[in-house]
Design brief:
The protein is mainly beta and about 260 residues long. The chain folds into two domains: about 130 residues, Sandwich (Immunoglobulin-like), CATH 2.60.40.10; about 100 residues, Immunoglobulin-like (Sandwich), CATH 2.60.40.10. It contains one helix and 18 strands. The radius of gyration is 21 Å and the shape is globular. About 25% of the residues are buried.
């Protein structure tokens, strides 16, 4: 089974640093995700300091299989560099972060996932007995090599959904991604009852969602979910379903909002 990520795009992680100052997160990123078009050698994203004081920003890239518990000498090397790795952003100022690819080392047949971290370190103030909070934001970077088949915008409609009813155990709803692109799903619902809040499905991955008794097949037989676009916008999808065969969902017209698939 292909590995997939369940971490929410654009999530924030907090690192607490015991120093003599106190600050709130002031740094914002210009997007919740970043698409690296492999036809070019770099991509960039802007950071904006909305606070009243200057902040230091440390930017790093990471393989999604590495986390905070991975020792530095065991972290996977990436054929990318981010610049500047450390910058001082004045109050109200902006800083452009550039991600550059060395031109080799990434899979050519499918999209790849990276994590971009932006750690905001507030300036130390002349106060005592206070807590300084360093805010670390993370967004997904999708490296998309040139020449991939299909349109990433159509990937959500190509997902294959199947009900599984084992002889013993929990019933599941499986979803398979036959495309070469990642598909980000939000609020997957079955008959109006949420199955999962967020799912990032990797290329050619398959994932099984356990079903509860509340996901009864006698309440309308509808699957609904949102899929995120390259720009972070949400598109609504819906499908009438059956337990007898695999099925796909279609993009739902939102003007007016449809009650039926």
């Amino acid at each position: 089974m292909t590995r997939l990520s369940l971490a929410r795009t654009g999530g924030c992680l907090l690192s607490l640093i015991l120093t003599s100052a106190c600050a709130e997160g002031a740094l914002s990123l210009a997007g919740t995700r970043l698409i690296f078009d492999g036809r070019y050698t770099e991509v960039s994203i802007e950071t904006h300091n909305k606070g009243r004081n200057a902040v230091l920003v440390q930017a790093t890239l990471s393989d999604p299989r590495d986390d905070d518990d991975t020792p530095p000498d065991q972290r996977r090397l990436l054929p990318f560099v981010i610049t500047p790795p450390l910058s001082k952003v004045p109050a109200g100022g902006k800083q452009l972060l550039r991600v550059l690819y060395q031109g080799a080392g990434m899979p050519a047949g499918q999209e790849s996932l990276l994590h971009l971290y932006a750690l905001e370190v507030p300036q130390r103030q002349a106060l005592e007995q206070q807590l300084n909070i360093a805010v670390r934001q993370r967004i997904n970077v999708f490296y998309r090599p040139p020449g991939l088949e299909g349109d990433p915008a159509d990937s959500a409609e190509r997902l294959r959904w199947t009900f599984n009813s084992p002889a013993a155990g929990t019933r599941t709803l499986s979803v398979e991604n036959p495309t070469v692109y990642h598909v980000s799903l939000e609020v997957v619902q079955l008959n109006g009852v949420q199955v999962i809040d967020y799912l990032l499905l990797a290329p050619r991955a398959r994932f099984e969602l356990p079903l509860a008794e509340s996901h009864s097949t006698a309440q309308g037989h509808q699957l609904r979910f949102n899929a995120l676009t390259d720009y972070g916008a949400r598109r609504r999808y819906c499908a009438p379903w059956t337990e007898q065969a695999s099925f796909t969902a279609r993009l739902q017209d939102t003007t007016p909002i449809q009650d039926e698939c």
